[in-house]
Amino acid sequence: MITLFRILSVLPLWLMHGLGWLLGWLVFGVSGLYRRRFLANARQAGYTPAQWLGAVGQAGCLVTELPRLWLGRPVRIHWDGAQHVEAALARGTGIVFLTPHLGCFEITAQAYAGRFGSRQPMTVLFRPARKTWLRGLIDSARWRPGLYTAPTTMAGVKQLLKALRQGQSVGLLPDQVPPHGLGVWAPFFGRAAYTMTLSARLAQQTGAAVLVAWGERLAWGRGYTVHVKPFAEQLPADAVQAATDINQAMAQLIAECPQQYLWGYARYKQPRQDGH
Question: Are 184 and 177 in contact (CB under 8 A)?
């Protein structure tokens, strides 16, 4: 499988996205459970078919672009809001980047590492793959100068806190469902969703700046645009209100490009009970 990834990594990005588009529609067509969840989530958010239809193919692109992003030559990256990163780095208190399952969330960390990582590295929180071969591939492919990873464990949380206290940056997907006991129920598009409290706690305990970011996938393999904005408000001490504010900020980002949101993600599922 690793050999296959290496072969695919040399193919042009436009071709990989084209294959991904076909893959997305194939999965949408054959998997009834995935299709029903996709449609239910998009309807819950109030979007029309004209607004979410492109997300069917984009979900496949999310998969097929990985060999190129992990093992291939660098892709073209444009920035929208780099001045906000500059300002936050100048504060010296660290940065918490919040990125939903929107567009290419892999590219946001890579783009930061390429442009700012030599000044202050970034550590991203991720859930380790269950398959051994895939875990090894991801660990080696994601590592690069200025970019580190932290697992979704207590050791990983301590790693994020240490990074922020050293003035570094961390990245999280706050719309990822955390294990039981590590989140609160808060509205997301008008429906209760189990939402992590970690992102707010990291900012509150360290005084770090909070930025929202997402990587827009450009048409015809032209690369990506990384969009960055400051978080609109000071996060409150109340955990449920802080989670609600973060969910609202993520919903506002999704509104910028609903055709690239991962509507098939099980956002409203019950949290895992074992914490693993």
Answer: no
